[in-house]
From TrEMBL:
CDD domains: Ribosomal_L30. PANTHER family: LARGE RIBOSOMAL SUBUNIT PROTEIN UL30M (PTHR15892:SF2), MITOCHONDRIAL RIBOSOMAL PROTEIN L30 (PTHR15892). One of its GO terms (biological process) is translation. The keyword ATP-binding does not apply. This is Large ribosomal subunit protein uL30m. GO terms for cellular component: large ribosomal subunit; mitochondrion. Keywords: Ribonucleoprotein, Ribosomal protein. It comes from the Eukaryota. The keyword NAD does not apply. Residues 32-81 form the Large ribosomal subunit protein uL30-like ferredoxin-like fold domain. Belongs to the universal ribosomal protein uL30 family.
Length: 123
């Protein structure tokens, strides 16, 4: 019951956005789907649904236009994904966004692997 109501609402949004071509750049027309939880331990159908959405790794995003098929797939794995309604241009920018360079580990100057962690030059 709930699923059919959501599918109907999504299809109404998709049809209304397709009919109004002047405001199509302002209204969201796509789903930006990001995998936030691992499908390990879930049935094979859930894993295959994620593959159908184009999601293979954690924090990977995929951009799909509004459709009943996409809405049904999202509802099947709704606990594992984060969905944002965006325009196509916004979605492409957000999907390609990566961490900035140099966001890894920085050396602290401590020596690991023995004692108190003091370097020999400090003794």
């Amino acid at each position: 019951m709930f699923r059919s109501r959501v599918l109907h609402q999504i299809s109404n949004i998709a049809s209304s956005s397709a009919s109004s071509s002047t405001s199509s750049s302002v209204t969201p027309t796509h789903h930006l789907i990001t995998l936030i939880r691992s499908p390990i331990g879930l049935p094979a159908s859930s894993r295959k649904t994620l593959e159908a959405l184009g999601l293979y790794r954690l924090r990977e995003s995929a951009l799909h236009p509004y459709s009943e098929t996409t809405a049904g797939r999202i509802l099947k794995v709704k606990e594992l994904v984060h969905v944002a309604n965006v325009t196509k241009a916004e979605g492409e920018v957000l999907r390609k966004r990566r961490r900035s360079e140099g966001s890894g580990l920085e050396p602290s100057g401590r020596v690991y692997g023995g004692g108190k962690g003091l370097a020999e030059s400090q003794i």
